[in-house]
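I am writing to request your help with a piece of structural work I have in hand. The matter concerns a single protein, recorded as an amino acid sequence and a row of backbone structure tokens. Could you please explain, in whatever detail you think fit, how the structure tokens follow from the sequence? Thank you for your consideration; the sequence and its tokens are set out here:
>
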Amino acid sequence: MDYDLALKTLGVAIPLGGIIYTWFATRQKDVDEALKTVSSRLDTGSKRMDQHDLEIQALQQTVASLPAKEDMHRLELTMSDIGGEIKAIAAHIGAQRDVMRRLETVVTRHEDHLLDKGKGK
């Protein structure tokens, strides 16, 4: 009987050991796959964060090189001064244009007078 009990115990223990071994072996594979997935996602996230960091640095450099509020105000005042000077130049050129028209009229009269004298002879 002892032999029969040992055989029955082995008959139960061997499949039970196989179940336990299979459970641990598959569990380890599942954990390894999950860790690979998590590791892959972490690597992707790390690369994206590095890219974002580079973009933020580029934006900071761009913003640092932009003109300040005072610079823009000075530029606005300078442009206003230039506008005033252009108006003064335009007025001066208008006056010069009027003088040139009068001179052209005088020269035309002289030419006409000289041409008429030549025809009358």
In short: The CA atoms of residues 20 and 43 lie 34 Å apart. The longest helix spans residues 2-65. The chain has two domains: 1-66, 67-121.
